[in-house]
Amino acid sequence: MVSDPNGAAVGYADWMSGCWGLDINKALTNSMNPSSSESKQKLSIELIPTAGITAEDQKMIDLINSLSITIDSGKVQDKNTASMKGFIGFQGKELPYQLSMDKDGMVIQLEGAKQPLYISLDNSEIGYPDMSQYQENIQGLSEKVVQFAINHAPNPTKLSVKQVQDKVNGESLALTNLHVEVNGEELLAMVKPFLTEVVKDEAGLKELINAFYDAFYPLYTSMEEEGIDVGTGLPVDSKGATVGAIHGQLIESLNEFLNNYDASLDKALKQTPELTTVLGKSSTFSMDLYFDSKQNIRKQNLDLAIALPASEGLPVSAIKLHTESELWNIGTEVKIDKIDTSAGVLDMTEGDVTPGQMLRNFEADSLMYKTLKNDLKITQKNIWLDPEDKYDGIVSNKNVSFVPLRYVSELLDAEVKWTKGSKEIVITDDLNGREIKLTVGSDKATIDGHPVTLPQPVFVDTYGTTYVPLRFIAESLGATVTKDADGWIIIDRK
Fold it and tell me: Does residue 321 lie in a domain region?
């Protein structure tokens, strides 16, 4: 708490409004209601290594620390339509990208791609209910939750407000800077006072539950009409009764939690001492928000550091995240940069996109192709099969190990097809398109037209499963086969 000019104790939200003209509730509500705008942003991550780590672990940490995402041009046309252009930093290189989205889907164009990537945002395609008609109520609930939390949250010890002159997209502006810092220890100490204030505010809590009811009751009734059992025992057809029941149950649970809070916390910290590191003074959150006279956030800098407890096999002592952004042209007419999809797309939501499909969509000399293949190693496979486990289906015949053809082929991303009206099977290698042709009952096969002889014929068991010699199918699909000391069979593809 702080004091107003008359010496009365007030909350920080009221103090900021009275002394600085900053309505923090309105400002954060504005930020949750995406209107048109333009922006730029940068996100980076840093892993802090522990002492004495291996060269391999250091290499992994250096790889992650080299990652950054930069948005040079972000545009929001409306709540469903946006675009961005920028680059992904990776090992000192820059991979340009462009993204555009609307209510139906997201299109991503990466440098070197023959076709842009497409991700459908149509929930009905994957069996989820259409939420668009409920968005306004859910948005209203989200705003009330944020306002409720702000009004009841204890004040962090490091909070300040000042007037500054700063640049946004090159334009010098008079802004109000809100600075907040909090560490893990302080955050943990804020839980009990926050919940205590929540319990006291009967009217505010009921108003929040009312908003929850308004947001989800229409969805509940829609699901009930479709025969979906939501499984609630609440009197949902009566708003007053439902709100009262939820409030009563919530208050009872919160009071019980608060009565046992100190003892439960002490017990949890003793049982899991690692929490004292994660929720200690070394874990910190720092935020600078810059508001204009219309209570719009025009600039922000966020830093998060999470300390990690020492643990065998964990080469990292802390994780740090940093993001900074600027916004302008808020509420004006903004048109997004739409990506041309007239030549087709690679649909990422239409079945499983294999490593071969992904690589073939990029020029072989492009940075993305080399990154996927050499750095991210998306073609690499390491498959362990247990000869004693019926699930893996390994059978032995005259000292030759056989495996279910489709099972192992698909583990290596290959496509398996039967030639209609014959006993011929065609397996297509995902990475190079090479065709392997087999015939049930025969030990003769071809690989890209070249004849080969199998150690034993292909056969179909009494359950209709086709079996093929393990080493032949694995090596034909570019993998190696070894066996460890415990008898496990290892299929490895680089």
Answer: yes
